[in-house]
Structures are given as C-alpha cells and as structure tokens.
Design goal:
- The complex is a heterodimer of chains A (about 350) and B (about 280).
- With about 350 residues, chain A is α+β, with helices and mostly antiparallel strands.
- Chain A contains 8 helices and 21 strands.
- A 7-stranded mixed beta sheet of chain A has the order 6-9-4-3-12-15-14. A 4-stranded antiparallel beta sheet of chain A has the order 10-11-16-13, with no helix packed on it. Chain A has a 3-stranded antiparallel beta sheet with strand order 5-8-7, with no helix packed on it.
- In chain A, a hairpin with a 5-residue loop joins strand 3 and strand 4.
- Chain B has about 280 residues and is mainly alpha-helical.
- Chain B is built from 10 helices and 1 strand.
- In chain B, helix 8 packs antiparallel against helix 9 and helix 9 packs antiparallel against helix 10.
- About 5% of the residues of chain B have low confidence.
- The chains are: A alpha+beta (about 350), B mainly alpha (about 280).
C-alpha cells in the first residue's frame, strides 16, 4: 500500500466532453472530519467571549462632582497568569487611587504620568477607583466633560446640572438621587452642562418607568429566545438518544416559609464565587431578602456589576427576583437543585 | 452526527450573536430619552439667552437656535412616526446647535480655565469631602471584608471628622486643618489594612509564584533543548532559586524585585513571561 497522499487534483476525471469533475465526498474526507469540525465550532463559540474580555473594562462608571472633579470606578478582567498589568488612566492628576484584586487585597501600584503598573499576581479581576481632575473644564458658566472611552460607560452628572450639548447619542438615561445618569457608548464624547435649578422635570419618573418596562421586555425576549433554542436542542438530543438518561438532580426542599441555611446552600453550590457567597451571606442575615439597591450600597458596587451578580445567582437557582415598589427585591429560594 | 452538527451550529450562532443582540437591544432603549434631553437643553438655552441678551440676541446665535429648536420639533415628529434613525440625526443636530450657542455665550465674556480647587473654594471643598468620603467607604468595605477590627475606631473617627469638616464648610470656617488630619488618618488606615492582610496576601502571592516558577523552570528546560544562550539560562535558574529563598523567608517585596530581574533575563532568552 502506497503511503503517498494523492492530491485532490489527481483524483479529477475528465468527462466525455472534457468537463472537469471533482468528487465532493473526497474533498470532505480529505479536508476535514465532521467531529473535528463540530468540536472546533464549539471551541470557537466558547472562546470568543473570553478572547474579547481581557483588558477591556467590564464596567466603567464615572461620577462628576460639582467642582468638576470626577470619580472613576472600573472593573477590568486581567490575565491571571500575569504578574503585573499596565493600565492607562484618564489623566495624570490622580487622587485617592485604590486598586483591589479579586480576593479583596489592596494591590501595589506604580503611577507614572497617566499610566498605572499594577502588581496583579494572579488576580483575574481588578477594581480600580480614583479621582481625576482632567476630564472637566470650565469656561464662564459652561462646564465641558470630555472623554475618549475604551468601552461603554455610565456618567452621573452633578445635582442641578442641565445638559446643553452633547456629541453622541446616549444609550440610556436614569435619575439617581435627583441626578442624571447617562449610559454612553465607547469612543469620544463631549457633554456641555450648566448648573441650574429645577432641571429634572416632573415627567422623569414616568419616563424612568417606561425605560424599566422596555428594558425588561427586551431582556425577557432574549431570555425567552435562548430558552426556546435550548429546549429545541434538548428535544433533538433526547429524541436521538432516548437512552442513558442522566440521573435526575437531587432536589432539596425545605418546608414553606423557611430558607435554606448557608451551609446547605454552599454545599449544594460548591462552585459559587467568593463575592457571590458574600452576597448570599448578606441576604441570609437580612431575613433571606434584600433590595438590590441595599446590596449595592452595602457592597459599594456599581449598578451593572450588582445586576450581573444578582442575575448570576438567579441563574444558579440560589435566589429569585421580585419587583417591589419599582425596585428589585432579591430573595433566597426556599428550595434548590444540587450542582453535579 | 448531523443532529450534533446542527446543535453545534446553534451553539456557535448563539455564542457569536448573543453579545451583539444584547448591545443592539441596549442601544434601542426608550428613544424618548433623546427628546427629553433635547427639550431640557432647549429650555436651558432659552433661559440663558434671556438672562444674557434679553431681547437683543445676536443674529448668529438666533440662526443656531432656530436650527436647534427646529431639530427638536423634528425629533418629536420622528419619534411619533417611529423613525428612529431620523430621530437620532435630529437629536445630534439639536444638541450640536445648542452646544455651539452655549460655547459662543461662554467665550464672549470669560476666559477658559481648568477646574482647580482654588477657583471655587466652597464648591471645591464640598466636592473634595464627597470624594474623600467615597474613598473612606471603599477602604471600609475592604476592611469589613477582611474583618480588620483595629480599623473600626479609625473609621468612626474618619466619619466624625467628615461631619466636622462639613459643618465648618457650612459655617464658612477654614477646614484645612481638619482635612489634613483626615488625610493623615486615611493614610494610616491604608497602612493598617495592608499590615493586617499582609500574611494572607503573602500566602496568595507565594502560591502564585510557586505555580509560576515551576512553569518558568519547565520553559527553561525547553530553551536549553533549543540551544538557547546557556549563560542566560543558568542566570535565570539562579534567580528562580533566589526568589524561592526569599519567599521562604517571607521577603515578598524582595522576591518581587528579583522577579523583575528574572523577567529581563527571560526576555533575553526569548521566553515570554506570560505562561499558560
């Protein structure tokens, strides 16, 4: 048997009229194997979000104070196999810089001009907080905020400020403690504002409610879509196999009105993140329920970070979310399934 | 197999599309926000024009205002006819016109200045205290996380100082002394936190180094097989030994310094410090 690989081109045959034919199945066999293709596709799908996540801020929240100084709070995914990580700050006049690793350790930082070299030593997520004086300038009574952001960000404007000009479209707007909070997309942004009285109109709350409803509908739509796809996939697979049905997860149910104790929860969910465990502890100590805003206040987390943490715990089946007075009430579930 | 392939394709499509779907949904949030911002800006501009010019508004500003105001009206119409793309254009046009007006008005009388504490003392002091308070809260959350009991008294002191400073600002007294006191207190709180968690942090760094050095050592063996510079390889191995010794003596900071040297040597050998 010859070990020589016959090139595809040599398998061609000339038809009666000299037409070139190439056998499709030969190409397929020679080029790829189906399982290999399937595995590659799954790996690619799994890796895409990871590849794009390193070095890009997960969250970027800015608060402008009345004197134009700005508090920056950002969370960045870093490579846990690196000993240090260099990050560009938004300017060089920095105050109150704190960098926290994912175990809650204060990390050492060397700041040179507008660059910070952080000794991460194995941290996979770092939180950076600092105050900066470079983002807002003032001309007469007009204040101008300018930023070239690497990611989408939220911007909380000072109380009684009224926007009178901006260079790009806001993604969202909310009112927090009578202050406008804009969500803006990455790239260059300039916003002009004045200080004024009665800048927040009476229609504010209605609009905020509408925003909540519309975003809820979108989220429900996306989740619904994913569930439908997952169900279809499960049906296909189960029909295909109809054998070797996996053992049903153990369900632990506790009498009504009682919540699971912490030990049981952590035993059932051994893979929970440490920060998520802290959240669960807090909710547990608070009679098994807490408003999302209380969690944010207690853990000093930005809105988006806390929202993701709560959604993560909901997915894990540890908590359930209810609406109470237009706020999210987070409750520990009375029963849950064990992780395999 | 076909069904498995079909499933994989679904996973692939969902995996790649989901982030863009979410972004898309996010960007399409209630467009009436645009109208609200534009109307608010329009009102503000009218107020500012009335205050500054009364009935003698310069022609160039009048033209710009008309342009902006017309764009706001058009924005309302675009939204009611659900023409989102047009609405976005109208919004940007309106905000751009108002921005130009406000800049012309500001330029006409006053010179541009960077925000500085000395410019507006009262406002700046209040903002400064707000910022320090946020800093205190951040450190307090770290301290709570690590159950550092020693810090409790210091944080109580910090909060009472903040209240005192606020009172001084309200009563127009000079709070600089108290602010210095507060800053010193914050420095000592930070030191206390670092000292209290030093052991835990050292252990975490040691564990990290241990895994890391094993892998670097492995890479050095591979480099030796590839006939890389033997002197540099030996030097790297010596540095690894030195780091291990320092770690065993708990001299973490010295170990970090030697590690910086090791990084340079590894680079010369052609080994990336990022090891997976």
């Amino acid at each position: 048997m010859s070990l020589l690989i016959e090139p595809i081109q040599s398998k061609k045959s000339l038809g009666e009229e000299g037409i070139l034919f190439v056998r499709n199945d030969s190409i397929f066999d020679t080029m790829v194997k189906v399982p290999l293709l399937v595995a590659s596709m799954i790996i690619v799908a799994a890796l895409l979000p990871i590849q794009s996540s390193f070095s890009t801020p997960r969250d970027l929240d800015l608060i402008i104070y009345p004197d134009g100084s700005t508090h920056i709070s950002t969370e960045i995914d870093v490579d846990p196999f690196l000993t240090d990580y260099e990050v560009n700050l938004f300017g060089s006049t920095i105050d109150n810089l704190v960098v926290i690793g994912d175990s809650g350790f204060l990390l050492d930082v060397d700041v040179i001009d507008d660059t910070a070299l952080i000794q991460t030593f194995g941290s996979s997520v770092i939180t950076i907080e600092y105050d900066i004086h470079d983002l807002v300038s003032k001309q007469g009574r007009l204040w101008t905020f300018s930023l070239d952001s690497p990611s989408d960000f939220t911007l909380l404007l000072p109380k009684n400020s009224a926007i009178v000009g901006m260079t790009n479209l806001p993604l969202n707007m909310e009112i927090i403690n009578e202050q406008n909070q804009l969500t803006l997309s990455s790239g260059s942004t300039e916003i002009d504002y004045f200080f004024s009285i009665n800048t927040i109109s009476s229609t504010t709350e209605e609009i905020v409610n509408e925003e909540d409803n519309s975003s809820n509908i979108i989220i429900v739509g996306i989740i619904g879509g994913i569930i439908v796809i997952a169900l279809v996939s499960v049906i296909i697979i189960t029909k295909n196999k109809q054998k070797n049905v996996k053992a049903i997860d153990e369900v632990v149910t506790i009498p009504k009105n009682n919540i699971l104790d912490l030990e049981t929860i952590f035993k059932l969910k051994p893979d929970l993140r440490e920060d998520d465990k802290e959240l669960i502890k807090f909710i547990f100590d608070n009679n098994g329920e807490a408003l999302e805003s209380e969690l944010r206040k207690n853990f000093l987390q930005p809105r988006t970070t806390m929202w993701r943490a709560v959604k993560r715990l909901e997915r894990e089946g540890v908590i359930e979310i209810e609406k109470k007075d237009l706020q999210n009430l987070v409750k520990l579930r009375k029963s849950m399934e064990e992780d395999n | 197999m076909k069904k498995l392939a079909f499933f994989a394709i679904i996973v692939l499509i969902c995996g790649t599309m989901s982030p863009s779907l979410v972004n898309h949904a996010y960007g399409q949030n209630d467009p009436s926000i645009l109208l609200r911002i534009a109307v608010q800006a329009d009102k503000q501009i009218v107020n500012q024009l009335d205050k500054k010019y009364e009935n003698q508004i310069p022609n160039n500003i009048n033209i710009l205002y008309d342009k902006g105001h017309t764009a706001v009206k058009s924005l309302g119409q675009s939204l009611s006819s659900n023409d989102i793309e047009k609405a976005k254009q109208d919004f940007l046009l309106a905000m751009n016109s108002f921005m130009q007006i406000s800049r012309i008005m500001s330029q006409s009388s006053e010179k541009s200045i960077e925000v500085n504490v000395s410019v507006i003392p009262h406002q700046a002091l209040e903002s400064k205290i707000d910022r320090i308070e946020k800093f205190v809260q951040t450190l307090e959350s770290i301290s709570k996380k690590h159950n550092i009991v020693q810090n409790k008294v210091q944080f109580t002191e910090a909060h009472s100082l903040i209240n005192e400073i606020r009172d001084q600002i309200t009563s127009n007294q000079n709070p600089s002394e108290k602010i210095t006191e507060l800053n010193n207190l914050m420095n000592s709180i930070q030191k206390e936190i670092r000292n209290s968690i030093a052991e835990k942090q050292s252990n975490a760094i040691k564990n990290f180094f241990e895994k890391f050095l094993v892998q670097i050592h492995q890479k050095l063996i591979e480099a030796k097989d590839l006939d890389r510079n033997q002197i540099e390889i030996d030097k790297a191995n010596e540095l690894i030994v030195e780091i291990r010794e320092l770690l065993s003596k708990n001299q973490i900071n010295d170990a970090k310094k030697v590690y910086s040297e090791l990084k340079v040597v590894l680079k010369d050998i052609g080994i990336s410090v990022k090891i997976t």
